[in-house]
Input
Amino acid sequence: GENVEQHPSTLSVQEGDSAVIKCTYSDSASNYFPWYKQELGKRPQLIIDIRSNVGEKKDQRIAVTLNKTAKHFSLHITETQPEDSAVYFCAASTRTGTASKLTFGTGTRLQVTL
Amino acid sequence: DTGVSQNPRHKITKRGQNVTFRCDPISEHNRLYWYRQTLGQGPEFLTYFQNEAQLEKSRLLSDRFSAERPKGSFSTLEIQRTEQGDSAMYLCASSLAGTPEQYFGPGTRLTVT
Output
């Protein structure tokens, strides 16, 4: 089955700096790659996603890039703010039948310091 | 609130007891997923439904676990004869047919003592 690896496990940046989180996946058939933000005690929140027919997608301060050949994708957060502090999870969609179960990475704890 | 809801939010039970959790998906979503999340890990897929049909179960879902979605709306996840290893956050997500985006509920945190 699909395996998703995520690095780094923790990341500390100063406010205003950029943060980059990287993931690799194993199943070349995966075609959907969402990113979730999870604050302590709260639900995972979908913040951005990318499909395999697109190389890059941007939404304000957040961008995601996908390299299908290398089977890796990355989350880029620019101009980080304290409220960006959270655990971020990447995931890959392994299509089964008509639905898309997600395989998650192990998470990156991002700390934005003042 | 039109998001995914789950009840209860917290459950403490003694080993060997049965527990049942409920998930109410976003109203127009016909796909419903259950995941389990342990501390420091990402969610792990357990099972999913399309309408009332349970279409896939993970190997993580032992025979002590059963999930239902009787009318294609809310779903229940039951764990029989709970074990300490069942302690985790149980997350529910839903999605609309034809779209991959999954939206999560707040989860039910289970503690087995």
The mean pLDDT of chain A is 93. Chain A is about 0% helix and 60% strand. Chain A touches chain B at residues 4, 6, 32, 34, 36, 42-46, 49, 51, 89, 91, 93, 96-107 (CB under 8 Å).
